[in-house]
TrEMBL record:
InterPro entries: PFKA, Phosphofructokinase_dom, PKF_sf. This is Phosphofructokinase domain-containing protein. It comes from the Eukaryota. GO terms for molecular function: 6-phosphofructokinase activity; metal ion binding. Residues 124-200 form the Phosphofructokinase domain. It comes from Kalanchoe fedtschenkoi (Lavender scallops). The keyword Magnesium applies. Keywords: Allosteric enzyme, Kinase, Magnesium, Metal-binding, Transferase. Pfam families: PFK.
Length: 210
């Protein structure tokens, strides 16, 4: 909802703005589409990311610690943290002329306690398409590392964007931590990029064959 569409005479305009924002930026869950999808305990385990949840204290002694590093699906992150007091403040982004503070929340990213794919049966494919942008190799590298942390064994790169799904002369690239360890030190895309490509139907057919 843009500022031009807001009726600021409505005493509930802030609530309506927030509800509209939540609707537009809500991320559907897999079970919203496939309600009968079975879930499995997450295989993600990164000791350094875990934080202790202390149930009880006795004086200054922690009686019991539970280590839990997963993100709750209802966790949210505040999108904007600066409360501007005036539209003339440097960098001010105001919805109304008084710069009224309106909280905008987005989903928190991170590993969940339940997963819906068995890692040993997953074949994950990564591709980069469109134009180049800084940091693509760093993203490719981290996705591969994270997939391996989950226990995924079959990780491939699709060369030259969506074109890699239809060009029979292009072969999948096997990816692993060993292969991508230092690609973030190079520019461009390790997988290559291209604009355009096959139709959605052709892409899906190619994925099913693979």
């Amino acid at each position: 909802m843009s500022a031009a569409k807001i009726d600021f005479t409505d005493p509930d305009w802030k609530v309506k703005f927030q509800e509209d924002f939540e609707t537009r930026f809500n991320i559907p869950h897999l079970t919203d589409v496939f309600p009968d999808s079975p879930s499995f305990p997450s295989t993600f385990c990164l000791q350094s990311s875990r934080t202790p949840v202390v149930e009880e204290y006795s004086a200054d002694f922690q009686v019991e610690d539970k280590w839990h590093g997963y993100i709750n699906n209802n966790d949210r992150v505040l999108l904007k943290v600066i409360h501007y007091s005036s539209p003339t403040s440097a960098g001010a982004e105001c919805i109304d002329k008084d710069c009224t503070w309106v909280e905008q929340w987005v989903h928190r990213a991170g590993p969940r306690e339940k997963i819906y794919f068995e890692p040993e049966n997953v074949k994950a494919a990564i591709l980069t398409c469109g134009g180049l942008c800084p940091g693509l190799n760093d993203v490719i590298r981290q996705v591969v590392i994270t997939l391996e942390i989950y226990g995924v064994k079959k990780i491939v790169g699709i060369p030259f964007g969506y074109r890699g799904f239809s060009d029979e002369d292009l072969s999948e690239m096997e990816l692993s931590r060993k292969v991508i360890q230092n690609i973030h030190l190079s520019g461009g895309s390790y997988l290559g990029v291209s604009r355009g490509g096959p139709t959605v139907t052709e892409i899906v057919d190619s994925m099913e064959i693979r």
